[in-house]
Amino acid sequence: MTTMDVTQQDLLQAVERLRPVLEHHRAQAESERRLADAVVSAMKEEGLFRALTPAEYGGSEVAWPSFLRAVEKLAGIDASAAWIMANVASGGVQAAFMPDAGAREVFGGGHLTAGSVIPAGRAVPVSGGYRVTGRWPLTSGCYHAAWLGGNCLVFEGQAPRMNAHGAPDFTVAFFPSSDVKIIDTWHSTGMRGTGSADIAVEDVFVPEHRTFPLFTAGSRFDRPLFRLGIDVSFFSSLTCVGLGIARAAVDSFVELAGKKTPTLSQTGLAARPTVHAEVARAEATLQSARSYLFDVADEMWATLSAGSRVPEELEARRRLSCVNAAEACERVVDAMYRLGGVTSIYSGHALDRCLRDVHTVNQHLAVSPVWWEKTGQYYFGLGLGMP
What we know:
This protein is of the alpha+beta class. It has twelve helices and eight strands.
């Protein structure tokens, strides 16, 4: 299929069809600290994991803003499932940047992939490829993946190899799951169902066609989705998980308020003017942040679809829209949690889960406060900085 085949409405309907299985297995995912196999199978069947994979390798290659809206909607039902969708589907973009043989092997079989861009591996060039050793943390979805990737620093002898730009040479290497050890480290505050454990390999041979230089590779396909780039797709997708969590928090509180009369009170929560005002502020905060993010995403997609590259000014706004959304979502969830009173503190309540999940999501580099500084410097003529 192509982007013409899968519309935004198709994606949103697919997400809604998943609701019963997600809700049924939510407690299991929290307890086992990974998504249930039934959930992964259902998401796979709906094609969500292959939404951004090139059509040449069986992906649907959907319009990027439509994908972001689907992640947001899914996060309103189950944030961990949305996080896995964002990670796995965004990972499919990598197929456009690696050799065709490797892309067909890793992404062409309909299998799930997982990986880490943290440069925690060591790759030593040998005939036909590399020998790789490394341990990568926070590998979301690793328990369900047939292929796993890890970012590596390339060494020549005892020294890092430099690329043509005079910077350290990093390459992403993909391994079959049979070569990978999963280390159970995922004991987290929130997002427990993501199964974001460590993965490790020891002196594994990786053929060159299953690698690509993360920061210098160009796309083999001159199409909008792949002109967008790996990092932009990945970071923006993760941000949309927070939008869904905040939406769920507001909706959960409104539902709770309609049923609850606080202790020693004769007035139900839903009848209190102060509650009305706080919910209105939360709605304004959330809707403003959401509109900013999607306005930028839509403009970026229109620019790319017209055959142009994204200018720095627009990329600056994308970064700001993400970090702004993250902070706005956190404020919204915190406010709803506090309004819920003692009810919010119980394990298993939606507001407890939203609080834990949004604060866990916001620890990720994608929405780190460092982007305020590194993007703000652009407005002083210093360019767009990296963390």
